[in-house]
């Protein structure tokens, strides 16, 4: 594992810090609710993704690869749900940043999003396919991934917290929410079409 640790860490860092549906929603949540309120979704999202690496390493990858229809169904369900979330963000684009009518992006939502996110499944399969060494406990890869994912997703929440200072006018809030909504929709569909 030692010789493949650095490439794995770099891969995990890029996978965790790059824009994706969960990171974009954590960004929006951080802007709307602050860092303290974002801790639970960050933890659950990171734990769910690390859990997926572990489960895929235990053999789920083989099952998914043997059943391409199940893969496609999961991908389509994930993209449709992410598109719905993007649509909801577009519809509420002009709502006040700290308004009470906004739905919370909580721990369950973050974990569920990871479970249906095609990008996370592809990443978990890639980790096991490329970095898992024979005889290596899969939990080690999952734990290292978790350790990398936590500060990466926290950085997105902090970016949201920092952007809240800039989002003082209704026009800026509307543009910010519209941008996040479109990025969410594009990232979901690009993962499916890739």
TrEMBL record:
Pfam families: LysE (PF01810). The chain crosses the membrane at residues 6-27, 39-61, 73-90, 111-133, 139-164, 176-193. InterPro entries: LeuE-type. It is a multi-pass membrane protein. The keyword Transmembrane helix applies. Keywords: Cell membrane, Membrane, Transmembrane, Transmembrane helix. It is found in: Cell membrane. Its main location: membrane. This is LysE family translocator. It comes from Pseudomonas urmiensis.
């Amino acid at each position: 594992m030692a010789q493949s640790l650095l490439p794995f860490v770099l891969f995990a860092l890029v996978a965790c810090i790059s824009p994706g549906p969960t990171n974009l929603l954590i960004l929006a949540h951080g802007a709307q609710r602050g860092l303290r309120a974002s801790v639970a979704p960050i933890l659950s999202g990171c734990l769910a993704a690390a859990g997926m690496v572990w489960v895929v390493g235990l053999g789920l990858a083989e099952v998914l690869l043997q059943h391409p229809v199940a893969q496609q169904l999961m991908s389509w369900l994930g993209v449709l749900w992410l598109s719905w979330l993007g649509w909801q963000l577009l519809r509420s684009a002009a709502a006040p940043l700290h308004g009470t009518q906004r739905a919370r992006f909580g721990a369950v939502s973050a974990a569920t999003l990871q479970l249906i996110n095609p990008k996370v499944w592809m990443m978990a399969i890639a980790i096991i396919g490329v970095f898992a060494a024979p005889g290596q406990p899969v939990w080690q890869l999952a734990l290292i991934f978790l350790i990398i994912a936590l500060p990466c997703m926290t950085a997105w929440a902090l970016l949201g917290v920092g952007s809240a200072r800039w989002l003082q006018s209704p026009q800026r809030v509307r543009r910010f929410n519209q941008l996040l909504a479109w990025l969410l929709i594009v990232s979901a569909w690009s993962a499916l079409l890739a």
